[in-house]
Queue: 3 jobs
Job 1
Amino acid sequence: MFSARFHWGIEQNRLTRVLHAKRAAGARVLDLTESNPTRAGLAYPREIAEAFCDPRMLTYEPLPAGMAEARAAVARYYAARGQAVAAERILLTASTSEGYAYLFKLLCNAGDEVLVPRPSYPLFEFLAGMELAKVRQYPLVYHGEWSIDLAALEALVTERTRAIVLVNPNNPTGSLVKRGEARELARLSAARGMALISDEVFSDYALRPPEEACRTLAAMDECLVFSMSGLSKVAGLPQMKLGWIVAGGPEGLRREAMEKLEWIADTYLSVSTPVQCAAARLLEAGEAVQRQIRQRTAANLEFARGALAGSAASILQVEAGWYVVVQVPRVRSEEEWTLEFLERDDVLVQPGFFYDFASEAFLVISLLTEQASFAEGIGRMAGHLR
């Protein structure tokens, strides 16, 4: 009696079972996968709570694209980063995931395809499946730094391809899209009648960005393009549930896309009035959280490089974001490595296959982890690897 549009897999994997057993037994597990900023020991300014002391929150005025002042606040966020984005090009959503859902609804009929990067965050198949669309994976390749295999990507394009998804910077590789890659993708998209979808939630967290990095596609006008972000990462506030889509591209196409997106959003009206009223103050207060995250990730990356130097592991080049990829010897599988670290050292890391790495053996670690726990966990890993 239930939908067959995607697999309803709910069985726990081995790593999760061992983790639950460890915690049930009272073990102190050093979690090097922490991705929730509200659990990472950051100091949140009181202005965040004060932002909700606004009587206007008691009035409901449903606006499909979002309240004008909240959209203006997002426009100022881009202006502070050197990007002129008109508020009328911005549509508010409850999250980036909802933004994907809106865009897949906008662009895809049942059976249509979107191209997504590999490796990347394992969410696209579920989001596309809910819209009866399919994903095809294009490869990111590593030769001292990550890049998009543009030839392989173009070979995947069919008459049913509707969009190319970019995660910029990528999660978990931390690689940024380069300007040359963006130009080629825009050319291909314009020629084949496709859209670009650029997920830029980690764009404020540069670590070692190359000069040719393209931090946002919001100003692109060669093809239809959608840039997405939100408070979850921008201000370290995932619980506030405010994201946005910035539409770009040729004016006529962009206007038509915005009209249709507003029609879709009007069906749900999911963004709450309180968070829209507070948006400007949340973005302003979030700058203090951002600074802490940048300091944390930079310090943890430096520590990890030093601690793992001379061991059997190596940290792959990372340009931005909250994560690093650690390559370990292929003497055992990623699952065996993660289980061994957990069972023997009480250290939790993620295997590369969670992110669809094409080969073994890679581990994924969060630089957001509280520094003392990060140092202790990396230290145990380094000792184990030596």
Note: The chain has two domains: 14-43+286-385, 49-284.
Job 2
Amino acid sequence: MAEIQLDKLTKVYGDGTRAVSELDLAVGDGEFIVFVGPSGCGKTTALRMIAGLETITDGTVRIAGDVVNTLPPKDRDVAMVFQNYALYPHMSAYDNMAFALKMRGVDKAEVTRRVQSAAQTLGLSEVLKKKPRTLSGGQRQRVAMGRAIVREPQAFLMDEPLSNLDAKLRVEMRAEIQRIQRDLRVTTIYVTHDQVEAMTMGDRVCVLRGGILQQAASPQELYERPANLFVAEFIGSPAMNLVQAELAHANGRVEVRFGSTGLEVPPTVLEAKPGLAGYESRRIVLGIRPEDIEDASLARSVTAGVIGVTVDIREDMGAEVFAHFRVDAEPVQTEEVLEAMEEEDVAGAVRERMRGGVPFIARLERDTQAREGASLELAVDTQRLHFFDAETGAGIY
């Protein structure tokens, strides 16, 4: 086990593409870190530089305190688990797991001990003689995990290892990987595009965008205190509702106003977010998570502001209902929206989506009376409002 230190890690390709920009990160001994972000954000490139599979343009990678920039992958004492398993089809599960040890000249008895121990941990003892083609997807993934475990490396590096599995197996393997990592306490860096995987598995989650680290924090902190608009939108499903607003004094209290709606900002929120004091009478971005909106007739929130809406679409999800509606306000022009507006083939669709108000989603209890086309009063938990600088997108705290 070992610490991994990244100091201004940078990758620029020959055509000038900057895949990773000055990534600074300290991964603690035994820590489980997840890199998450949209396609092309640099997460896999960063992992491959740590593994030695990608040359480093600038910066430093340290493993257990040693600089490994120029070391080949085999000398970095890390084990990588790939998306495609990369198993040898002509070898049994046992031989796939033992291959790296045999190549390193490990004693036969020690090879057997390690493989059998890993197989027992992974529930593979009954399939060690089978070839990969006869194994299920979950079993093949376990063999790939076992191949990494038997090496007893200082760190595991995992590149979207569950993306080829169906939804049920992904849930099972998420728990399996967490259990194994907890038992072995091996430093682990895990790459995924799936925020559910990131939030449920990582001790800390690193959100990347355009090769730049946006925020590295615990899942709970990412959810409750997103550093900027990108993190706020990316973390959470459905995504956070965002709207342009302003703070104003009214009748001795502070309100956040958007369109024809005003919500009181509780004194406890103003105390917890002292940065809001500098934004009175200024434009800001208001964020409301769908799960912080309730059917007013069923509301449990102590401090809530009520807004009247007309339901556009009701989505029954079984245990809950997603109610889509629009609010009378100005939309937030995030970078993603602005980029889309520059593309002719989607500009019309984006403008149409914004016409008639800003689309919102509420995540309601299944007992809600929300119906398509019906008027509905919704209660917003004002203790959980999020605020962002309208110009920089930075969170206001």
Note: The chain has two domains: 4-229, 241-389.
Job 3
Amino acid sequence: MKITSNQAIQATLSGDWENAIRLNKMLLDEKPDDVEALNRIGLAFTVTNDKKNAKKSYEKVLEIDPLNSIALKNLRKLESNNQSDSPTIIQVNNIFIEETGRTKVVDLINLAQAEILMSLKTGQNVDMSVKRLKIFIHQEKNYIGVLPDDIGNRLIKFIKGGNTYEAFVKSATHQNVSIFIRELKKSAKYKDQPSFLHTLETKLHLKSDKKPRKTKRKS
């Protein structure tokens, strides 16, 4: 039976860890360098307290993609927890499972009034709408904030091309709101382009867009 990545993702999101391990192993049998499957199975091994295999999974990711932020972060957590021989208790909020290129945590700008921000709860679904070349974030009729231009401009292009996204409140205080954005559907037009870039990739992308300065000749 052909296994799809969507089946493995759903098993992970639902917290069905044994099934997640089984399905992601089947994906890796077909494609050993699938970093998304390796990250998912690393998470599943971590939650089931199989630190050895979790570490192997994340190390394999870094062999393929040395800058993979998910593997780097989770490997650091594992290594810090190895100082204790007691079982590691990990609480996982399935909403916020990260996937390279498909998810991102973003701090909003141009925020609403403090009383609106303080009413937000972690995990609460928020809406995204494109207006005046910006992406506005709101919850029902309440305006919350705006995505920064670098991320907003990139997502507007993808949304107009057919990509779809969902967003949730990651954290909120009276003066800061972070949201978690996940790509739900990728259009055929942008099938080879990630929705979100690594920090280093973003810097390189911006650098390549800069026009070289013209130097004046000395007379």
Note: Residues 85-91, 200-211 have pLDDT under 50 and may be disordered.
